[in-house]
Every structure is written in structure tokens, then in C-alpha cells.
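Subgroup meeting minutes
Present: P.N., E.W., G.H.
Scribe: E.W.

1. P.N. recapped why we're keeping a running log of single-chain structure predictions: easier to compare across weeks, and new members can see raw inputs and outputs side by side.
2. G.H. added today's entry (292 aa).
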Amino acid sequence: MKARIVGFFAVIFLVLSCADANRSYVRKAVRIMDKHGIFAEGAEWTSAQKAALAAKPGSLEEAQDVIREALKVAGGKHSFLKTGESVAADAAAEWPAPSVSILEDGIAFVVLPPFSGGHSEGINYALTALEGVPDDVRGVIIDLRDNTGGNMYPMIAAVHRFIVDDDILRFRTRKRTQWVQLPFVLQSVGISRMAHIGCPVALLTNEWTASSGEAVLLCFRGLDYARSFGLPTAGYASANTPFTLSDGAQLVLTTGCDVARTGEVFCDNPIQPDVLTETPLEAALDWLRSVI
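Output recorded in log:
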């Protein structure tokens, strides 16, 4: 009888401990959102925050669902919770490198795919594009169609020879606005700066150009030698920051909106191309041939 009583209280203790762990898991995530989330202010966030903290999730999965609901308010549509399994899968995935081809009239055609790989893969990503473009190229097309995002630094590094200035993009958080500078990008990737190539730049977009793909597009926005062609982008032009939770999951939280050198602020709104067209490659080639 005594053993049964001890066992009963052991089960109760285990249940209470798990419940406390789940609530603590939610509280930590809510604190992160409250401190860093781009939209974590005002009445809507106060209500969402209270609801999350009042929840009593019975499992880790339920706790993660509570976090996802709060994320919709604190970070908007670009924020998400990535499970530990997803984090591991991304780390093990093989990410395609850019492709480069030289077209007629000395025009380079550079395709930048999505990228979320590691450091050495990031170097390879950037160098594949850089080494494929000759110094005497007369014009370049940067294809961002279907680039759904990932790590923007290798993408920017891959085409940095066509960016004329150091201050390429700004992030506006709830508290401040700061420049993203090209030397910092190259240092983060781990490659040296190469000489600038002064030629006209055409950028291709579609409805799947998102997140870091949109950030690359904005690095050229406002430059008089660059023009974009295609369809409006997906509307995820914002900065995400990953925060690792106790189980290895990542709270991928939107912490800032992208601001172009023109002063235009983008976040959840699609970026309109300079030339709206269903045939962007043809339109880009026509424009480049008219200016080179």
C-alpha cells in the first residue's frame, strides 16, 4: 500500500514538473518576443501576450502551438517556430550554388537560388558566382525569381562587385534604424572584396522572390544603373533573427523591416518591380542592349 502511495505521488510530481516545464518554455519564448518582436507593442500584443502566459499546455507540442499563436502578433507573417528536427534537417541539407552563363553582347546571367547552408557552403555560394563573371562583362542580369530566402549575406556577397557603395540596406527595429554595410557582409561570409564592375544591372523578380531574395533586390534599389523586371515580390522584406530554445527548436522572429537607400520601408508589402512584365528576361535583355 505504501509503495502504491509513493508511486501515485511520483506520478503527480512528474505531471506537475512537465506542466511547469511547458509553461516555462512558453514564458521564455514570450519574453523574447516581447523584447525583440517588430510588432510586439500595443493592445493587440498585450492581449496575445496575456493569452500565451495564461495557457496551460499539456505537452511540448501544445506549448509550441501557443508560441505560434503569439508569434503571429509579435512578428507577423514572416516569423515562425522551427522544430529541432527541422533545424537539424536544414543543417544537413545540400543547397544549390548559383549558376552563371555569358550571353550575347557580353551580358552575364547570374541565377541566385535560396540558401541556408553553413559557413563553408556560404563561401562556395559567393565564389561560384564571383568567379563565373569576367571582369570585362558589359552588363549583368541577376535572377532572383524563386529565391525564397535564407541567409542574405552569401547572396549579397555573390553579386557585391556590382554594388557601388558601402551602405546597401537598413534594418528598422522598434527602437532604431541601422545600416547594413558591404564590408561587414563580406567579413561575415569570409571573403575578400573584389574590384567593382561598373555596368548596368537588371534584376528579375516574381511572386516567389522573398525574404533574403527581396533584400538582395533592395541593395540595388535607387541606383541609377539598376532596374528590376518581372512581378511583385512575395512581401517578406524583413529581418529575421533565430533564438534557440531549450529543446533545440528555433524561434525565428521578425525583428526589423527592410529600408532601401531610397528611404522606402518594406516589411509585409510586396516590392513592385520597375518594369511589370510576364517576360522579364526578354525585357531585361532589351533594356541592357539599349544602354550598353
